[in-house]
Amino acid sequence: DGGITQSPKYLFRKEGQNVTLSCEQNLNHDAMYWYRQDPGQGLRLIYYSQIVNDFQKGDIAEGYSVSREKKESFPLTVTSAQKNPTAFYLCASRYSGYTEAFFGQGTRLTVV
Amino acid sequence: GENVEQHPSTLSVQEGDSAVIKCTYSDSASNYFPWYKQELGKRPQLIIDIRSNVGEKKDQRIAVTLNKTAKHFSLHITETQPEDSAVYFCAREEVFGANNLFFGTGTRLTVIP
């Protein structure tokens, strides 16, 4: 099943609340990524991490935060500063550059 | 952004016909170009990739061609089948940098039986 798991599958958030999306992998991959998928806009990079305790902003990092305290885990927090958080979020991991990226099954976040 | 341009956004073909999806990019430092397939309700999965030292790669009914001079690469699916219906994403990766994958906007392919 790819060895990368996202939870929950569906998440509802009230306006003004922070929520955290989980991403765990048991593939021993160094690199982990968070993408946001909106209709017609492809996969846009939010944050990425090449190694434990290090991460970098992607193209649309505003309103999001991450941590990488363990190799296996790369949680994403959607903060109240994110103005349009309703979207489908995908986590991915891979060994390094120029290798296959494995995706989680995604989390659909809806602001209510 | 640093993503790639992908066309068309939607494509419908009759079963058995061929489908072609094209992506263009501007960063000449890109040298790895994978294609991912995302079936409805499922996660994206790699179907084929190509590196800049080759111009074409084939795997059964799918092939990818790369023109580094013109900065475009294409996915070709021959003898299409209904199970080929999905959203296809192209991507690129740079030679140097953070080893990030930059994705295209996706093409929704529908194969009509």
Outline:
By secondary structure, chain A is mainly β. Chain A has no helices and 11 strands. In chain B, a hairpin with a 4-residue loop joins strand 7 and strand 8.
Describe the structure.
The complex is a heterodimer of chains A (112) and B (113). Chain A has 112 residues and is mostly beta strands. In chain A, 0% of the residues lie in helices and 50% in strands. Chain A is built from no helices and 11 strands. In chain A, the strands form 2 sheets. In chain A, strands 2, 4, 5, 6, 9, 10 and 11 form a 7-stranded mixed beta sheet that branches. In chain A, strands 1-3-8-7 form a 4-stranded antiparallel beta sheet, with no helix packed on it. In chain A, a hairpin with a 7-residue loop joins strand 9 and strand 10 (102-103). By secondary structure, chain B is mainly beta. Chain B is 0% helix and 57% strand. Chain B has strands at residues 5-7, 10-14, 19-24, 30-38, 45-51, 56-59, 62-67, 72-77, 86-94, 101-103, 107-112. In chain B, the strands form 2 sheets. In chain B, strands 2, 4, 5, 9, 10 and 11 form a 6-stranded mixed beta sheet that branches. In chain B, a hairpin with a 6-residue loop joins strand 4 and strand 5. Chain B starts with a strand and ends with a strand. Classes of the chains: A mainly beta (112), B mainly beta (113).
